[in-house]
Design brief:
Layout: E1 11-18, H1 22-33, E2 38-42, E3 58-59, H2 64-68, H3 75-85, H4 91-111, E4 116-118, E5 138-141, E6 144-145, H5 175-181, H6 186-203, E7 211-212, H7 214-228, E8 232-235, E9 238-244, E10 250-256, E11 262-273, H8 282-285, H9 308-313, E12 327-336, E13 342-346, E14 357-360, H10 374-383, H11 385-388, E15 391-396, H12 397-403, H13 416-421, E16 425-427, H14 430-437, H15 441-455, H16 469-474, E17 493-505, E18 516-518, E19 524-530, H17 550-565
Helix pairs in contact: 1-7, 1-17, 4-17, 5-6, 14-15
């Protein structure tokens, strides 16, 4: 154990939270609402972590908002569904999540600026399994006007630039159909014109648009909550170790501030770890993923400081048992931005399920239903690791113009730069494209011809694409008879390479149902809590629906905040 020194600390707070993503911000706000003095430390210069660049979906079964929107759900239905999708080794925490999720949302909305609304048309990822719902189980943040943050808006991490328009304009799911139809529908053209006018006015006083959606809105709402509740927020803060008292209880930490000056902070009631997990710790991550998966992650870069798993392990905390199912997966394409930074584009819902695209392996053959969840897509890649890493998303010119592909947005007038950089492969014919991506031309031509024959009628007998409500919800409702299937016919043809990347790790610190970190002896380490991706996931490597990382992160962040606030002060 690393015991505290006799020197007086530089700062004293009731609670210290390390990491300012959804879990950390929730824990900090909850503890502050309980009357605690709270210090929130974030290694980056901005807050939000991976949450800020995510879709911001929050999976909470049997929530009261879905019921009010005529999408009733029950905990028994959720249990049935999770029994069919989650391995089931950790039912105690799973039951705590089910019992506490809606209570957490109710309490947070009563005490903070968090506001969520049900997404009534977003099904669970395995909608044909018993207990699944067609929508409402997932919540999304209500759009947020960031001008309400004042100067604190500068603390919110920007979304990925590839997910914004015109250098800083976020768009909602409801905006996308209007953007697609703006050349054909006067109503949509007017809708888009109003969006652009609103954005232009916002840019007169802000460096980017102030209407926030998705994960950015979630972070902004939680940040406003923390600020309003008096949480002390320090960015650029590197935590180097946890301190314990003679009884082994965590009583503070050592850190370096933005000026790299060492500081000691005492935590009278405890410390909550919410640093984002082990995605960027190659050594630890390697214990939980197949070798063929590589090291790519779509999570926010970690920097040099030790993450929660390292900090806690140094004082005897327990990590998940080794497994090859320890990640939440997404197919991702990579590129270099104009400023020289590396871009990682997560292919979640914007392109794979749309009509007019197929995915092929290195042999030029399809290997998966392209419209399955991003997690299942990568699981298929890993199952065909010898040929499907990387895989290629292949489309024709009509698809590229209407839907975009990866970082390439719809209605892009010229893709020359992306072809020149190598991100986008191009061929006048399917055979030419095969040569560009290094697959056998005859095989790819045959694959496309066979697919096209049935796709003319909206069919996919090989993989059943568009066969359930989840897949169809991600297609193009304007395309019939199957919103997920159309032939690839109009050259030139294009392709982008995708490889496995994690959206966060399922593996992490072992904790109990009160978010208390457990030692290698199975007992709680006094004064130490974990939430978010620092806590080993209750989903145990499964991905049953949208928001199954943020739902537990907020729920256990709320639990951790309440529990640490009740610790006796030392």
């Amino acid at each position: 154990m690393t015991q505290a020194t006799s020197d007086a600390p530089d700062d004293v707070f009731d609670v210290v939270v390390v990491g300012a993503g959804a879990g950390g911000l929730t824990a900090a706000s909850t503890a502050a609402a309980q009357g605690c003095s709270v210090l929130l430390l974030e290694q980056a210069a901005v807050v939000g972590g991976t949450t800020a660049i995510s879709g911001g979906m929050v999976w909470i079964p049997a929530n009261h908002k879905a019921a009010a929107a005529q999408r009733p759900d029950t905990l028994d239905a959720a249990r049935t569904y999770l029994a069919a999708t989650v391995p089931g080794q950790d039912r105690t925490r799973l039951e705590t999540f089910l019992a506490s999720g809606d209570a957490a949302i109710r309490d947070l909305e009563a005490r903070t600026s968090l506001r969520l609304q049900p997404v009534i048309t977003y099904p669970d990822y395995y909608p044909d399994l018993p207990g699944a719902t067609a929508g409402g189980r997932v919540l999304e943040p209500v759009p947020f006007d960031a001008s309400a943050l004042g100067n604190a808006f500068a603390l919110v991490r920007d979304p990925l630039p590839e997910f914004m328009l015109f250098g800083g304009m976020m768009i909602s799911r409801q905006d996308i159909p209007h953007l697609r139809r703006m050349w054909k529908s006067p109503r949509s053209a007017l809708y888009v014109a109003k969006l652009l006018l609103k954005y232009g006015l916002q840019r007169l006083g802000a460096r980017r648009g102030t209407t926030l959606y998705l994960g950015n809105a979630l972070v902004a709402r939680l940040l406003k909550s923390a600020v309003d509740l008096g949480v002390t927020i320090r960015t650029g803060a590197t935590v180097t170790r946890l301190e314990t008292d003679p009884h082994g209880r965590v009583c503070g930490l050592e850190m370096k501030d933005a000026s790299a000056r060492p500081r000691r902070v005492r935590a009278r009631r405890g410390v909550v770890l919410a640093t984002g997990g082990i995605s960027h710790d190659a050594e630890l991550r390697g214990n939980f993923v197949p070798d063929s998966a590589g090291t790519l992650t779509a999570t926010v870069a970690a920097g040099a400081a030790p993450r929660g798993a390292r900090l806690a392990s140094a004082i005897g905390a327990q990590l998940s048992a080794a497994t090859r199912e320890g990640a939440f997966w997404v197919p991702a394409s990579t590129f270099t931005r104009a400023d020289g930074s590396r871009g990682v584009y997560p292919h979640t819902v914007t392109d794979r399920a749309k009509p007019g695209l197929i995915a092929v392996d290195g042999n030029g053959r399809r290997f998966v239903n392209e419209a399955v969840s991003y997690h299942e897509f990568v699981r298929a890649q890993l199952a065909h690791a010898n040929s499907a890493i990387p895989a290629w998303l292949v489309c024709d010119s009509r698809f590229l113009w209407k839907y975009g592909l990866g970082k390439i947005k719809p209605f892009t007038l010229s893709v020359h730069a992306d072809v020149k950089s190598g991100y986008l492969k191009r061929g006048e014919t399917v055979g030419d494209l095969a040569g560009s991506i290094g697959v056998p031309p005859q095989a790819l031509e045959t694959t496309v011809a066979v697919f096209n024959k049935d796709a003319e009628h909206g069919d996919d007998p090989a993989f059943g694409r568009g066969s359930n409500i989840y897949q169809r919800s991600l297609g193009d409702a304007d395309h019939q008879p199957n919103p997920c299937v159309a032939p690839l016919k109009q050259g030139p043809f294009y392709a982008v390479a995708v490889q496995p990347a994690d959206l966060g790790m399922s593996a992490g610190l072992v904790a109990d149902d009160q978010a208390r970190v457990l030692g290698v002896d199975g007992r709680p380490i006094g004064g130490l809590y974990a939430c978010g991706n620092d806590m080993a996931s209750i989903m145990e490597g499964a991905y049953p629906g949208p928001g199954i990382t943020l739902g537990p992160a907020i729920t256990f962040g709320w639990i951790a905040g309440r529990q640490v606030a009740e610790e006796p002060a030392s």
